[in-house]
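Below is a typical protein record.
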Amino acid sequence: MTKHITLAISGSISAYKAADLTSQLVKKGYEVTVLMTEAATAFIPPLTLQVLSKNPVHLDVMKEDNVKIVNHIELAKQTDLFILAPASANTLAHLSYGFADNIVTSVALALPTTTPKLMAPAMNTKMYQNPITQENIKRLIAVGFDEIPPKTSLLACGDTGPGALADLDIILQAIDAVLGIRTPKLVP
C-alpha cells in the first residue's frame, strides 16, 4: 500500500531543497501532497513542486475545489506522515500556539493525533537558538512532533552555526524510519 506523505513547506531560503526532497520521495514510491505557506512561494514556485509530485500544490486554506469536502480536513485524513520542511521560526510559532491561519497550520492541526509528524527547522542560528523558538519546538515535541535538527553550516545570511536544513538523506532516513521502511544498504 502506498504511503501518503504531506510535505509542508514554509518560508525559508532552504525551501528550494523541497524540489529535490519531493522528487526523491516520489522516486521511493511515496504519494506526495505539497502544502506551501505564502512566504514559501517567494523561494520556490508551486508549479515546480506540482510537476515533481504529480499532484496539485495547496496554497490557500480557503480554496475549496470540491464543495462536498473541506479541503484541509480531507488532506489531513489522507496523510500517513506529515513533514514540515523547512520549518521556519514563524510557522513553528504559529503551529505551537494552535493558529490555523494558512493551509500548512490548518492541515497540521486537523491531523489525527496518531499521525506521525516531523519538523525540520531551517533559519538563522540566532533565531533557532532563541529561547522562544526552542520553547516552541519543545511544545510541538510534547504534542507528538519529532524534530530533525538543523545542521551547523555557513548560512545564506553569512552567519555560521546551527540553522541549515538537515541534509536530505537524513530527512529521507527519518521519514523511512517513522514509516517503518528499511532502506537497503548499497553494496559497493
